[in-house]
Amino acid sequence: MRFTRREFALTAAAAAAVAGRGAFAQAPAFFRIGTGGTAGTYYPIGGIIANAISAPPRLVLTAQSSNGSVANVNGIVSGALESGFAQADVAHWAHTGTGLFEGKEKAADLRLIANLYPESIHLVAAKSANIKTVADLKGKRVSLDEPGSGTLVDARIILEGYGLSEKDVKADYLKPNQAAEKMRDGGMDAFIFVGGYPTSAITELAAAGPGIDIVPIDGAQAEAIRKKYAFFAADEIPANTYKGAAAAKTLAVGAQWVTSAKVPEALVYEITKALWSDKTRAALDAGHAKGKSIRKETATAGPSVPWHAGAEKFYKEAGLLK
């Protein structure tokens, strides 16, 4: 079996950490985290985690902007990323070769580091569009997020659950900040985004006016979606999370931090341990509204792929896994 230069460096650095010889200075471990667009939640959370865990020169984590869940999974599989954030549904489909990844080679080496927080499905509509339910999207100008994003996958599921398809709407495929700008200029009626609330693109849109609604995703249709896709959970976006928007029942999927089985056990163990340190806890609490939802107590909830051996070792020691 041949190792790439990057894999060799990772292995050497991890071995040095275990041996305690301080050799990280000679063989530093670089660990990239694929996140999402800069206007979403993945990117700032990834930056907080990377900054808190990094211990230069022996260990350097960096958060990289990307197209989101699907792109991150593909990056891990190709070796372009050591890790990334992904929706639980996307990770599951990639690992099993089902759903969005039907007919593609299974991401057999995809492994879980931690469950982070629930990602709420936001259906954002301009008040002027008079959209009160998902069914009202028919014939409207709707952005479903960009190709390669987990949001686009879930947007299609939501439309289908309410008897619609992309052909029933005037579909566009923009990042949330681009969709928000277009809505502010009157060129978009609604857009769908999956992420932890509050997200900056929607916050800024609501503050700028002329007003938005967060449209509920609920009722019998939402319940049917949950029964068909077990990775969805009932959720609610509280009133005034976004200026002037009422509370909205919706669905959510878990945001998870995934990596490859090829990354050394010792390295992932140290990263997982550092993720739940007092230093990272303080950074998450202070750095982002969603940071408070990232808790060690829920880190092992709803695994969508097998645990990485290093993460599993930590959680067993912490009494969170048997």
Task: Record the SSE blueprint.
Elements: H1 5-19, E1 29-34, H2 42-53, E2 59-64, H3 69-78, E3 83-87, H4 88-96, E4 110-126, E5 141-143, H5 150-161, E6 170-172, H6 176-184, E7 190-195, H7 200-208, E8 212-214, H8 219-228, E9 233-237, E10 248-260, H9 265-275, H10 278-287, H11 309-317
Parallel strand pairs: 1-2, 1-3, 5-6, 5-7
Antiparallel strand pairs: 3-10, 4-7, 4-8, 4-10, 9-10
Helix pairs in contact: 2-10, 6-7, 9-11
What's the gist of this structure?
This protein has helices at 5-19, 42-53, 69-78, 88-96, 150-161, 176-184, 200-208, 219-228, 265-275, 278-287, 309-317; strands at 29-34, 59-64, 83-87, 110-126, 141-143, 170-172, 190-195, 212-214, 233-237, 248-260. It has 322 residues and is α/β, with parallel strands linked by helices. β5 (141-143), α5 (150-161) and β6 (170-172) form a beta-alpha-beta unit.
| Rg for CA atoms | 20 Å
The total tally of domains equals 2
SS content category: alpha/beta
Q: Count of DSSP helices?
A: 11
In the CATH scheme, the class of the largest domain would be Alpha Beta
Quote the beta fraction: 15-25%
Uncertain regions: pLDDT < 50 for 5+ in a row? 1-26
What is the H/E order?
HEHEHEHEEHEHEHEHEEHHH
Helix percentage range: 25-40%
For the largest beta-sheet, the strand count, sense and barrel status come to:
10 strands, mixed
Please tell me the overall pLDDT. 90
In one word, what is the shape?
globular
Within CATH, the superfamily of the largest domain carries the name Periplasmic binding protein-like II
Name of the CATH architecture of the largest domain: 3-Layer(aba) Sandwich
CATH topology heading of the largest domain: D-Maltodextrin-Binding Protein, domain 2
The number of strands is 10
Distance between the termini: 32 Å
